[in-house]
Each structure stands twice: as structure tokens, then as C-alpha cells.
Write a structure and sequence with these properties.
This protein is an alpha+beta fold and about 325 residues long. The chain has 13 helices and twelve strands. Helix 5 packs antiparallel against helix 6. It starts with a helix and ends in a 6-residue tail after the last helix.
């Protein structure tokens, strides 16, 4: 590369030096900056460095020249504060739907948004090797493909798999492709779910994104616009326990007062609370009646009772009796 051309890149390399090599604890002197430019075959004088830094300030970079030791120039503010980056890195590392390999790649990109010194703090912050991560490397691209289909108002098709007891992936429906009109992506219980209209059954269903394979954006336009126009993802997830399906019903539940926090966490702050007596309150909520719903109730023990409807009370009683049967002594 001709020397005259490299000189034109001088201000860009100064910007890079300040982004990568400087922070409040590690300012760069003019001599440091001249040496950095020299590594790229760019010559500079002290005056031109000062002029270029002023140009970067006019451009919008918050560059501070500290007089006291350690003295020098540093980038005082960035697009993301350190606390924000730690939050984002933690979210990536703890997300089960992102593989370990993709997590490392994303975290490296997040580290590039701060100085190399601060980036080391991010590396120490997040390593948690025992967290379970998805094995489907394509999940990252599945999400992008689904967003593309939603943006273009198109249907998608895909294969869906499940695990066998021998820990092998098995395609559901013998590998037949699912045909779905995608409308919502929901992050629930550390997994990503697609919510959409099944084109074959005409029923709203949800699918784990990390269990979807070979997604294809189809030419056909999406169905279900009338239903999803008023779709409330928060309401949908509050009544769907563990994101498992089930028949939707309105259920009245009576709780002991100390469980109010559990109820608000589950059904949201807007849930209607009715005083039952001095020690109990009741709520009327729409839920998907399933074994996961009953399991959630069982986890609360005697602190909650299904008040109505009677058919759900009966189903819950049978659920508990069946579970208890597994622990009866063998004669």
C-alpha cells in the first residue's frame, strides 16, 4: 500500500486506538498514539495528532485529555456502559437456546464494544460451564429466518425433532415438514418459541426454535392476521405452563395470602385479586389445563386450591392420586 494512501487512514487508526486501547484507567499519551500509528506505517507529528483528536471530538467522540497521572487521552463514553455489557453478556451466556460455540462468538463481539482492558472483566464475569446449552447450532439462523418471514408476511416450513431415551434426535411425523404462518417469537423459561397458525389444522400452536430444522421461507402469504391482530404474548405465556399446550379454560384458584408474590409473578401485576377471607384470596384466570399446570399447583402444596370448575378439580385430584400411586408400598 502506498505511503500516501496509508496517511489518509491516520484519523481512522487514531479512532481505533482510542476505542481499543484506552479507558479511564488506561489513557494514551500523544507518544503512545504516534507509536500506534507507526505500527501501521503511518507517520505523525504531535500537532497533527492534536488536530486529528479535535476532529474526532467534532465528529462526536467523547475524548478526554486528563492532565493528572496517569495522564493522556481516553474515550470517556461509549455506546454501551460496562454494566450494560455485563447484562448482555450474562443473557447470552445463560441462554439455553444459544450453543456454547455461538455464545463465545457473540461475547467476543460484545467485548469489542469496550477497551481490551475492560473486555477482560467481561470474560471473568460470565463463564458458567455447568449451564445446559442447546445442541442445535442452527438456532441462531433459525431466529433470523423467522424474523425474515414475519417481515415479508410469508409462511415457513420446517422439520421438528424430539429426543429419544437413547439421546438421539428423531424427526417428528416421520420427517414431514410443518407448515406454519409465523407471528410471534417469545422468550420463555430460557428458550425461544415460535407462535403461529398451523396451516393444516388451523390451530394456533407454538414450537421450540432450537428443535426446528431446515427452515424455509415459503412464497405463500401468512394466515391468521385477524386472530393475531389483538394477540397478547404476555397473556399467552402467563396461562401456558412450561410452554406446553392444553385445553384453555377459565379457572378459579384460592391461595393463602403469603403466595400473592407467586401469583403476580405468574399471571402479572394486572391480575384481579378477590379477598376470600382474612387468610385467603382468589383469582379467576385463563390457563392451559395440562399436567404442567397441575405440577405447578402441586409445587405450591396446600397453599392453593382449585375452586372451580368441577371438571378441573376432578382432573387435578386424579393427577395427584396417580402420582401418589407411584409411591404406594408394593404388597
Amino acid at each position: 500500500m502506498p505511503k500516501s494512501f496509508r496517511q489518509k487512514l491516520k484519523v481512522i487508526y487514531l479512532m481505533e486506538a482510542l476505542r481499543k486501547k484506552s479507558d479511564e484507567q488506561h489513557p494514551l499519551t500523544v507518544n503512545d498514539l504516534i507509536a500506534y500509528l507507526g505500527d501501521y506505517g503511518i507517520s505523525a507529528e504531535r500537532k497533527t495528532v492534536y488536530d486529528d483528536i479535535e476532529m474526532l471530538r467534532i465528529y462526536g467522540m467523547d475524548i478526554v485529555n486528563r492532565r493528572e497521572k496517569p495522564s493522556g487521552f481516553f474515550l470517556a463514553s461509549r455506546e454501551f456502559q460496562m454494566a450494560e455489557l455485563k447484562l448482555l453478556v450474562d443473557a447470552v451466556q445463560s441462554s439455553k437456546f444459544i450453543t456454547q460455540k455461538k455464545s463465545r462468538q457473540l461475547i467476543r463481539k460484545l467485548e469489542s464494544l469496550t477497551s481490551e482492558y475492560e473486555a477482560k472483566k467481561l470474560q471473568r464475569q460470565v463463564y458458567v460451564g455447568s449451564r445446559v446449552k442447546t445442541m442445535n447450532e442452527s438456532v441462531y439462523y433459525n431466529i433470523d429466518c423467522i424474523h425474515e418471514a414475519i417481515s415479508e408476511n410469508r409462511q415457513i416450513s420446517f422439520q421438528y425433532y424430539e429426543w429419544t431415551v437413547s439421546k438421539e434426535m428423531r424427526l417428528k411425523k416421520d420427517g414431514e415438514r410443518y407448515r406454519i404462518s409465523p407471528w410471534e417469537l417469545i422468550w420463555k423459561d430460557e428458550n425461544y418459541y415460535l407462535v403461529g397458525l398451523d396451516e393444516n389444522s388451523g390451530i394456533v400452536k407454538h414450537y421450540r426454535v432450537d428443535k426446528m430444522l431446515s427452515i424455509s421461507v415459503e412464497k405463500e402469504l401468512r394466515s391468521g392476521e385477524e386472530f393475531f391482530r389483538n394477540f397478547d404474548p404476555a397473556k399467552f405465556t402467563s396461562g401456558t405452563f412450561g410452554m406446553f399446550g392444553g385445553r384453555e379454560e377459565s379457572v378459579r384458584l384460592v391461595f393463602e395470602n403469603p403466595l400473592i408474590g407467586v401469583v403476580i409473578d405468574r399471571f402479572g401485576h394486572d391480575v384481579m385479586i378477590h379477598k376470600q377471607d382474612e387468610e385467603h384470596f382468589a383469582v379467576q384466570v385463563r390457563v392451559n389445563v395440562s399436567s404442567q399446570f397441575f405440577g405447578w399447583l402441586a409445587g405450591l402444596g396446600a397453599g392453593v386450591v382449585i375452586s372451580s370448575p368441577e371438571n378441573v378439580r376432578k382432573e387435578y385430584k386424579e393427577f395427584l392420586e396417580h402420582a401418589l400411586e407411584q409411591y404406594r408400598e408394593q404388597k
